[in-house]
Design brief:
With 64 residues, the protein is mostly helical. 66% of the residues lie in helices and 0% in strands. The longest helix is centred in the middle third of the chain and has 16 residues.
């Protein structure tokens, strides 16, 4: 979840399995949103952009 947020979302959305419970999706959101603005713990802009894209994919799919 921490290293490859877009891969996590791809696995969730493309697996063909039922979506995980809302609780799981909320945990992902709670873990990722702070990383968007925390430049000290996540200084790499590409990593923060990947988090934003992953969050956007989940939201776009109507899961959050």
């Amino acid at each position: 979840m921490d290293a490859q947020p877009e891969l996590v979302v791809q696995c969730i959305t493309d697996s063909g399995a039922d979506m995980p419970p809302d609780e799981t999706l909320l945990k992902l959101r709670e873990a990722w949103i702070p990383r968007l603005t925390d430049l000290e713990s996540d200084p790499n802009p590409q990593a923060r952009a990947a988090i934003g894209r992953a969050l956007g994919q989940l939201k776009h799919k109507g899961e959050l």
